[in-house]
Amino acid sequence: MTDRTVFPVVGFMGAVQAGCCYVPVDVKMPIDRMKSILTQVAPAAILYAKKDEKVASQFSGLAPLIKISLESDTVFDLNELQARRDGVLDIDPLYTIFTSGSTGKPKGILISHRNVIDFIEWMDDTCGLDENDVLANQAPFYFDLSVKNLYTALKCGATVHILPQKFFSFPKLLSAYLNEHSVTALIWATSAFRIIATSGILEREPFRSVKKVILGGEALQASHLNLWRKAMPDTMYINLYGPTEVTVDCTYFPITREYRDDEIIPIGKACKNMEVMLIDDDDRLAVPGKQGEICVRGTGLAIGYLGDDEKNAVAFVQNPLNPRYPDRLYRTGDLGRLDEDGNIIFVSRKDHQIKHMGYRIELGEVETAVCAIDGVSDAVCIFDEDEDEIVCFCVTEMTAAQLVATAKTRIPKYMIPGVWKIMESLPANANGKNDRVKLKENYLAER
Fold first, then answer.
1. Which range (138-142, 275-279, 283-287, 424-428) has the least confidence?
2. Residue whose C-alpha is closest to residue 386's, from 418, 413, 359
3. Backbone angles phi, psi at 21, to 5 degrees
4. What is the pLDDT of residues 305-331, one digit of tens each?
C-alpha cells in the first residue's frame, strides 16, 4: 500500500531482501480497482503503514496483513533469508506495475531484476549522477517514473527527498524546499515540469542548485522548456521516452540547442543495449521521414503481462525483421518518424490509449467506468491533444457534476474526463458502432 512517504520504500526493500516481487498499490485508489489488482496478484502478503490500517483491513481475506515499521524486535532467520536470495535469478520479477487496461481491468506489467539493473546502469553512466547528488522524487510509487529516482540513488549513493503532492499546487513551497535542501537533479514527469513552467515561480524563485532535469512520461513542449531555460540557463535537460513495458525508458535526447516554441523536440535515440525501430504496416522498416510504429527490443523488455497470455501474444512478438531465431520485440502502439539527424520524433498513438498528466490511460477503461454508472446508457471518450483534456460524450439525464462525483469512486482522479458532453444519442458509423471520428471532428470544430 503506497503513498508519498518513506514507508513504501521500506516495504519495497523488505520484499526484495526476502527474495520477493513487490506490487505498489495506491492507498487512495478506488476500492474496486484495488480489489481488481489484488485479485489478479494473489499476494503472499499485504504491507501497509499504520495510518493506512483501515484501508488494508478491507483486504484481510485476500492475504496476511503486515504493518511496516522502521523499528522491529523481530528475530529473523538470516540463513533462510540468504538461502531465498541465493535462489533468485536476475530474470525473476522485481516488481509489477499496474497500468490502465483497455477492457476496464488494470493490467500488471512484470519487470525483472535484470531489466532494472541494465536500465539504472545506463542512467548512471548517461546522466552522470553520483553520491553528491540530491534528488527530489515527484512521482507516486505506483508510477514507474519513481523507479528512476529510487534505484539511481541506490546505484550511485545519492540522497532522495520524497515530495508531497501539495508542492505542485503551491509552487512557492516547492521552490523553498528544493533550495533549502540543495536539490541538484530532478527526474520528473513532463506533466510536473509543465505545471511549474506555467506557474510563474521560476521567474520569481528559480531552483538555484538544480543542475540536471531529466524528463519523461509524455511529449515535451518547447514552450515549457524555454520557460525553464530562461530561468535556469546553465541547467542540463534530457528528454526520455518509453512505456512501462520497456522498463521506464528506451530512448533519450540531450537538449543541446535552442528550440522555437512551435518546434517539436525529439525523443532521441535508443538507450544502451536497446534497439528502437519504426516498423510500417507491412512489417518493414519505415522509410526515413515516414512514420511507423515504435517497436523495441533489448534487455529492457518486460517479462510480460501478469496472467494475460492473449495480450502478451499481441504486444510481445517475434521481430518481423528477423525470422531466423527467437527474437522478442515489443510493439508500443506509438507512431514515430526519424528526423534528418536520425532522432525519433513522437507522432501519436495508434489506438485509443493516451498520455495524460504523465499517465498512460486506456480510454476504454474510462468508458467502462462511466458506462457502469446507474443512469448512463452509453459513453464514448476522446482525447483533445491541444487542450490536454479527456472528453466524454455521455447518454444520460445526469449532470456533469453528478457524473464526476460518481466517477471518483470508480477510477483515479487523473482518469476522470475534464469535459462532459451530455447527449440524447451517439452517432453510429456504417458498421453500427459509435462513430468516434465524427464525434471528435464535431467537437473540435465546435471548440
1. 424-428
2. 418
3. -105, 140
4. 999 999 999 999 999 999 999 999 999
User: Are 429 and 438 in contact, with CB atoms under 8 Å apart?
Assistant: yes
- pLDDT category at 294 given cuts 50, 70, 90 is very high
Q: Residue 399 is placed in which grid cell?
A: 449532470
pLDDT > 90? residue 348: no
- Note the maximum CA span of the chain: 69
Residue 437 scores a pLDDT above 90? no
- DSSP for 384-405? ETTTTEEEEEEEESS-HHHHHH
Is 373 within 8 Å of 407 (Cβ atoms)? yes
Q: What is the pLDDT of residue 434?
A: 81
Backbone angles phi, psi at 25, to 5 degrees: -130, 125
Residue 257's CB is within 10 A of a number of other CB atoms, namely 5
Instruction: Tell me phi and psi for residue 115, to 5 degrees.
Output: -55, -50
At position 26, the amino acid (one-letter code) is D
Residue with cell 474510462: 366
CA distance 350 to 385: 14
Those residues whose C-beta lies under 8 Å from the C-beta of residue 413, and which sit 6 or more positions away, are none
Of 267, 328, 301, 423, the closest CA to residue 438 belongs to 423
